[in-house]
Design brief:
alpha/beta
């Protein structure tokens, strides 16, 4: 479903601020893979997701989604293939629009727009059933402005919107990092449920090692712009946080020093 072939990305080339964020990285995701991604600060995790989604073009290499080469496609054209949830709950929804209006926008993504009535009653029934499964009471507040919701409610809504059209690839960029532990767990459980039901191919960045081990069928570790560890199956199921720390030190030749990830053990 996703083929990444030898991609590289350097920011501010030729200046004192030059930074090579991706270094000849190659990665394949098969249909239905749920891959968790961990790594220290500056490892290139978010750069990888931004490269896939077209926020910026790579300097070299290829990105292929479901057999289509999207390497040169701008971000708005790649949106037809992708669903994405960001770390910031404020991104991904229109704050001044109602909940049902946001869902209608997500449902109509990629379709031809007309001047017909915006939302039919039959659609509202559909939206209400989708929202009810979130267990957040949003089904009774469909006309409420999204800007009035809590961070957790908004992130759960964004996740629902990102998966309405069953994207070819779902990108989750530390989408629970800004939430309190209880709300983060709720959103993660919802994520696992939706990904499993829809058999979505998913790439999820997390700073929490336990979550990285428990969720998904595969785990990759990044360091200095490349993948240094890739594990799946029974080996992944049997991993411990201590195993991951050892693997990092073994592959990178140095001690793991990321305070935020250490605190999330």
């Amino acid at each position: 479903m996703l083929e990444i072939k030898n991609i590289s990305k350097t920011f501010n080339p030729g200046t004192v601020n030059q930074k090579q964020a991706l270094k000849g990285l190659s990665l394949n995701l098969y249909d239905g893979d749920f891959v968790t991604v961990i790594g220290g600060n500056g490892a290139g995790k978010s750069t990888l997701l931004n490269a896939i989604s077209g926020v910026w073009l790579v300097d070299e290499g290829q990105i292929i989604i479901d057999g289509k080469d999207v390497t040169k496609l701008p971000e708005y054209k790649r949106a037809a293939f992708l669903g994405r949830v960001f770390q910031d709950p404020m991104i991904g929804t229109a704050a001044t629009m109602g909940i049902e209006e946001n869902l209608a926008l997500a449902l109509r993504r990629g379709s031809h727009r007309t001047l017909k009535a915006g939302i039919k009653n039959s659609e509202r029934d559909l939206y209400r059933s989708w929202l009810k499964r979130l267990g957040l009471g949003l089904e009774d507040r469909m006309t409420s402005k999204v800007g009035l919701l809590s961070g957790g409610q908004r992130q759960a809504l964004t996740l629902l919107m990102a998966t309405l059209q069953r994207p070819k690839l779902l990108l989750l960029d530390e989408h629970t990092a800004a939430l309190d532990p209880k709300t983060a767990r709720k959103v993660l459980d919802l994520t696992a449920e939706i990904v499993s039901e829809q058999k979505l191919t998913t790439l999820m960045i997390t700073h929490n090692m336990k979550d990285a081990i428990q969720l998904g069928n595969r785990l990759i570790m990044m360091h200095e712009g490349n993948v240094i560890y890739d594990v799946s199956g029974e080996e992944k199921k049997n991993l411990t946080v201590e195993d991951l720390l050892h693997k990092f030190e073994e592959a990178s030749g140095g001690e793991f020093a990321n305070d935020r990830m250490m605190l999330a053990k």
